[in-house]
Amino acid sequence: QVQLVESGGGLVQAGDSLRLSCAASGRTINTNVMGWFRQAPGKEREFVTAISRSGDIIEYTDSVKGRFTISRDNAKNTVYLQMNSLKPEDTAVYYCAGRSSFYTSLTQRSSDFLYWGQGTQVTVSS
């Protein structure tokens, strides 16, 4: 089993930056596709970004392209989400997620992810 714990959320102003971390425990995640999702109040959980096991393939939702960067440090068993030029519409609870190690492909569907963290709140004021 893999346990995921997010950190780094907070309250910032529009245009600011935040770096989220997702620390994994239980076993190594170097065989897992990892991703970030977010859920704003009253909305469904939505895909933000995903990264392949080696980090060489990355996908982003259109609304964050050029502003957010996902990365992973398999030696530290951690995944990161660097968020720059934050906007009020980025306000949400951000969740780290991991696919079963059986699957190697990236996906934007939350139902394809097996492991989930508890989420960290990001609030961007205008």
Secondary structure elements and pairings:
Layout: E1 3-7, E2 10-13, E3 18-25, E4 34-39, E5 46-51, E6 58-60, E7 68-73, E8 78-83, E9 92-98, E10 115-116, E11 120-125
Parallel strand pairs: 2-11
Antiparallel strand pairs: 1-3, 3-8, 4-5, 4-9, 5-6, 7-8, 9-10, 9-11
* Relative strand content: over 45%
Radius of gyration: 13 Å
Q: Pick out the low-confidence regions.
A: none
| Largest sheet geometry | 7 strands, mixed
Structural class: mainly beta
Instruction: Report helical residue fraction.
Output: under 10%
Average of the residue pLDDT scores: 97
Q: State the oligomer.
A: single chain
Count of helix runs: 0
Task: Identify the notable features of this structure and list them briefly.
126 residues, mainly beta, 7-stranded mixed beta sheet, 4-stranded antiparallel beta sheet
